[in-house]
Design a protein that fits this description.
- The structure holds two protein chains of two kinds.
- Chain A is mainly beta.
- Chain A is 0% helix and 54% strand.
- Chain A is built from no helices and ten strands.
- In chain A, a hairpin with a 5-residue loop joins strand 7 and strand 8.
- The radius of gyration of chain A is 13 Å and the shape is globular.
- By secondary structure, chain B is an all-beta fold.
- Helices cover 0% and strands 52% of the residues of chain B.
- Chain B has no helices and eleven strands.
- In chain B, the strands form two sheets. In chain B, strands 2, 4, 5, 6, 9, 10 and 11 form a seven-stranded mixed beta sheet that branches. In chain B, strands 1-3-8-7 form a four-stranded antiparallel beta sheet, with no helix packed on it.
- In chain B, a hairpin with a 6-residue loop joins strand 5 and strand 6.
- Chain B is globular and about 40 Å long.
- The mean pLDDT of chain B is 93.
- The chains are: A mainly beta, B mainly beta.
Chain lengths: 110, 114
């Protein structure tokens, strides 16, 4: 079956550091979405990528849709305490194929 | 703003009880989804619905059923709760079925089955 790997599983960083996480898949997808889940809340869409090779920024966030359409990364620059949460990649394919990665739990120490 | 609400934030039930989890969205979205979230496993799709009275099985439908009698409401039913159904349950909705459509999530219901 399809495999979707998100890494790292967790990160403990100091405030001000940069963060990088990624997802890789055995399958090709048409869209890569990245969601963030704050503690005690549901996930919220952070950034969406619609084209292979696309690089998109949203404030301190940068995400890229891999050229092979099988991977994506999310970077956060100059982390702050409110970046704490769980980050999920969510690739989308044909025929309503919707997936979520296992999540990257981010802890930011002030 | 889209609002997805879930009937309870925390629920404690006993093994064998019938459990209803309710979800309501206020943006006239066609699609609604139920996921469970477990540490290290991410979000796994239980059931989804594209329209009133329509339902489709997701990746882990066993032990669950759903009901969509009205467009805005999607219920998840555990006919006979078991301890391995202790989890966080998340409801979501989206405007259409395209892979470009964002899903909007409720705050989740943390269910404990004793």
């Amino acid at each position: 079956g399809q495999q979707l790997n998100q890494s790292p599983q967790s990160m403990f960083i100091q405030e001000g550091e940069d963060v990088s996480m990624n997802c890789t898949s055995s399958s090709i997808f048409n869209t890569w979405l990245w969601y963030k889940q704050d503690p005690g809340e549901g996930p919220v869409l952070l950034i969406a990528l619609y084209k292979a090779g696309e690089l998109t920024s949203n404030g301190r966030l940068t995400a890229q849709f891999g050229i092979t359409r099988k991977d994506s990364f999310l970077n956060i620059s100059a982390s702050i305490p409110s970046d704490v949460g769980i980050y999920f990649c969510a690739p989308r394919g044909n025929n309503n194929d919707m997936r979520f990665g296992a999540g990257t739990r981010l802890t930011v120490k002030p | 703003d889209v609002k997805v609400t879930q009937s309870s934030r925390y629920l404690v039930k006993r093994t064998g009880e019938k459990v209803f989890l309710e979800c309501v969205q206020d943006m006239d979205h066609e699609n609604m989804f139920w996921y469970r979230q477990d540490p290290g496993l991410g979000l796994r799709l239980i059931y989804f619905s594209y329209d009133v009275k329509m339902k489709e099985k997701g990746d882990i439908p066993e032990g669950y059923s759903v009901s969509r009698e009205k467009k805005e409401r999607f219920s998840l039913i555990l006919e006979s709760a078991s301890t391995n159904q202790t989890s966080m349950y998340l409801c979501a909705s989206s405007i259409g079925t395209s892979e470009y459509n964002e899903q909007f999530f409720g705050p989740g219901t943390r269910l404990t089955v004793l």
